[in-house]
Amino acid sequence: MTKITLENLAHSYLPNPTKDSDYALKPMTMTWQDGGAYALLGSSGCGKSTLLNIISGLLVPSQGRILFGDRDVTSLPTADRNIAQVFQFPVVYDTMSVRDNLAFPLRNRGMTETEVAQRVAQVAEMIGMADTLDRRARGLTADAKQKISLGRGMVRQDVNAILFDEPLTVIDPHMKWELRTQLKDLHRQFGHTMIYVTHDQTEALTFADQVVVMYDGRVVQAGTPQALFDAPEHTFVGYFIGSPGMNVIDARIEGATAHVAGGQVRLAHGYDAHPGKVQLGIRPEFLRIAAGDEGLPFTIRRIEDVGHHRILRGRVGDTEVNVIVPEGQPIPEGANRVIPDPAHTHVYVDDWRVAPRASERAA
Amino acid sequence: MDKPVNNRAWFLVLPVLLLVAFSAVLPLMTVVNYAVQDTFGNNQFFWAGLEWFQDVIDSDRIRAALGRQILFSAIILAIEIPLGIFIALNMPKKGAWASFCLVLMALPLLIPWNVVGTIWQVFGRVDIGLLGHTLAKLGIDYNYVNDALDAWVTIIVMDVWHWTSLVALLCYAGLQSIPDAYYQAAKIDQASRWKVFRYIELPKMQGVLLIAVLLRFMDSFMIYTEPFVVTGGGPGNATTFLSIDLVKMAVGQFDLGPAAAFSLIYFLVILLISFVFYTVMTKEQETL
């Protein structure tokens, strides 16, 4: 168990990277606190797995350093880092029994058979395979094999961190939920630093205290699920977290007023003029549907009733916009406007959130 | 489900049947025919029963050849299988060197048997051969023509040179099919090199190893051309393997009856040992 620090870390799969786009992982500096439960969230190909493999030592970064605590491990091979990693697809040692599979990492560390037996029994209980311990791993279902892989990841108690690379992809939904809970319990019990890679936001939000969102080889935001929901630093975070994601609408901003598609919106603060693409970001939860002249012109295209609320799908100008209407709240007759909540309306320039004008903030 | 039954369709198989009968079944039956008959010439045959088989089984000469043959195959397998695995493990996995190694490894396999024999026959000669002459100059008493051990060593080294590539290439194909994730998981689990081999590489190679063992066993058990070219079965009978003995008997002495019985027994022995290998190795696959 240890704090993991990435210092000015970057990686390219090309031998001589020159352009920014040559890098699978753009230069980053960040710290993973000891005992933290992190979710690494992002779409496919954003560099999540690359980052994970660098931490575990399967990949050597093109530049930068990795520190476990105060120790530089950048050039240390995987085996010497004492780290556990579970991969997306099951890896089991076919010729061994389930028991030997689980015991394998422990025996490699030279633990006594008594300790091994005890630990294996605990983990088998955790993954629900206590009664199949003596079966050969060959011929088990993908589900069961992945549970063994998970078990092998969790079996060592002295690891510096446990890394999960989308481990529940092949597990059926019911078991998924249960295993996620088990992982959470394990974390509470032993306080390992855990990093959980996924592209499923539900998985990320239920597992982690801290969610790290990656986009295009960069960490765009790291924070609590609430912080990511309330104030997305990047339009991608807004879009990726939340269901449906944040609405992003082109706008022109003058002080505390935004001009959008022929309508006007009052903002909570004044903003300086910025060069570049200016957009408003408003979550569907913070848009109110109305009839009249106030707010932004909105045309409803479809209404989806998802039980505890309804989702209005429509357009503001040429932009697709979603509005969430809470249960019990009527949709007014002839609704043709949406009114954003100023407190939850963010301004983005070139996809990054900008702070209000300095004088405003002081006030 | 009712399948349409049309027995006339069997006629379509007839050409193949005739061809196979002409090229394989009839010649084999001729052998069977000779094995149970005797003749005093003039193409007049009479029934001999199992007499020839009894003769073959009782023959000291054939028993000795069988012993040499089994020893030879055992040595060949004991060297070529581990060596082939070792080479496959150390071949580059990708890149230009991988292709280069593949071509290099395939080269010996492309040379006809009698050419391989001739190469080594000349290579080992003490008067003009590079190997033989060099050894002689180094003061090593090497002469495959006079010394039985030297003859054996020469033939074994030649076979290893000729056929280890086959084992290596088969194993290499097996190794290439192992996904990277297995090696990564092994690193994470802090497995030693030996354990990676024992628990990942060896199990994944089992299928191809079975083929390699069977092919190398059958080929080495039937070896004829190379020792015939290099030593002619000598010195004495030291390198007279079963097939050499068989040809001597059938074509040299023209003892068609015993030779026919001999070939049938020879065939059954190969079949039996191959079956044993197959059963043992596939059984191991299930229980491992």
TrEMBL record, chain B:
Keywords: Membrane, Transmembrane, Transmembrane helix, Transport. Pfam families: BPD_transp_1. PROSITE patterns: ABC_TM1. The keyword Membrane applies. Coiled coil: none annotated. Its main location: membrane. Residues 66-277 form the ABC transmembrane type-1 domain. It is found in: Cell membrane. It comes from Paracoccus zhejiangensis. One of its GO terms (cellular component) is plasma membrane. The chain crosses the membrane at residues 12-36, 70-89, 96-115, 151-175, 196-218, 259-280. The lineage of its organism: Bacteria, Pseudomonadati, Pseudomonadota, Alphaproteobacteria, Rhodobacterales. This is ABC transporter permease. The keyword Cell membrane does not apply. It is a multi-pass membrane protein. Belongs to the binding-protein-dependent transport system permease family. One of its GO terms (biological process) is transmembrane transport.
